[in-house]
């Protein structure tokens, strides 16, 4: 049986991930989106990877500016995840009304997150529907301590000990 996009999507629902928001700016326009296709790939040098759909505003901004920020969300931030996924808040500026800060590149990071990473693209790998970016982490700021927001099989969860 050939592996289709739907079959892979169904299989990957069994992979539990954290939830993050990727933000970027270019020409005075900022935007962001919820992603779970984010991970570290190297400690020396400090590199992370994220994959963004080519049809998104965020991907267009990253392609133009070559920088992005990643905010790792904490438990209880489902509404922020939904907002940046475009499910509950499809305004032109998803960042409107949220507290943000910036580090090196000026990209906005969400103040309420567990940690913010400021990144500069060093490699990109175009695919038919998306682009995989590998980026150097230029700066990191840790927020309030807490537990991460977790996503599994199209639902949010909290970690328990």
Kindly report the spatial arrangement of strands forming the biggest sheet.
Answer: 3-2-6-9-10-5-4
Number of strands: 12
**Strand content of the residues, in percent?**
35-45%
Continuous helix count: 3
CATH class: Mainly Beta
Major beta sheet summary:
7 strands, antiparallel
**Overall domain count:** 1
- One letter per element, helices H and strands E, the order comes to HEEEEEHEHEEEEEE
Uncertain runs? none
Quote the average pLDDT.
91
Please identify, by name, the CATH architecture. Answer: Roll
CATH topology: Pnp Oxidase, Chain A
**Cα gyration radius (Å):** 15 Å
Structural class: mainly beta
How would you sum up this structure, described in words?
- It is built from three helices and twelve strands.
- With about 160 residues, the protein is mostly beta strands.
- The chain has one domain: Roll (Pnp Oxidase, Chain A), CATH 2.30.110.10.
- It has a seven-stranded antiparallel sheet with strand order 3-2-6-9-10-5-4. A three-stranded antiparallel sheet has the order 1-11-12, with no helix packed on it.
- The radius of gyration is 15 Å and the shape is globular.
- The model has no long low-confidence stretch (mean pLDDT about 90).
- It comes from Thermanaerothrix solaris.
- One of its GO terms (molecular function) is oxidoreductase activity.
- It holds the Pfam family Flavin_Reduct.
């Amino acid at each position: 049986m050939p592996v289709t996009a739907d079959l892979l999507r169904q299989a990957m629902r069994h992979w539990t991930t954290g939830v993050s928001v990727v933000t970027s700016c270019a020409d005075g326009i900022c935007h962001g989106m919820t992603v779970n296709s984010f991970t570290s790939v190297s400690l020396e040098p400090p590199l992370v990877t994220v994959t963004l759909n080519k049809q998104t505003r965020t991907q267009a901004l990253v392609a133009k500016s070559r920088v992005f920020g990643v905010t790792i969300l904490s438990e209880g931030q489902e509404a922020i995840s939904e907002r940046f996924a475009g499910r509950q808040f499809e305004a032109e500026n998803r960042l409107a009304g949220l507290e943000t800060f910036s580090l090196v590149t000026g990209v906005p990071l969400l103040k309420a997150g567990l940690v913010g990473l400021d990144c500069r693209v060093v490699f990109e790998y175009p695919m038919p529907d998306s682009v995989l970016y590998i980026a150097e982490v230029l700066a990191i700021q840790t927020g309030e301590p807490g537990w991460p927001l977790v996503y599994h099989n199209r639902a949010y969860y909290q970690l328990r000990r």
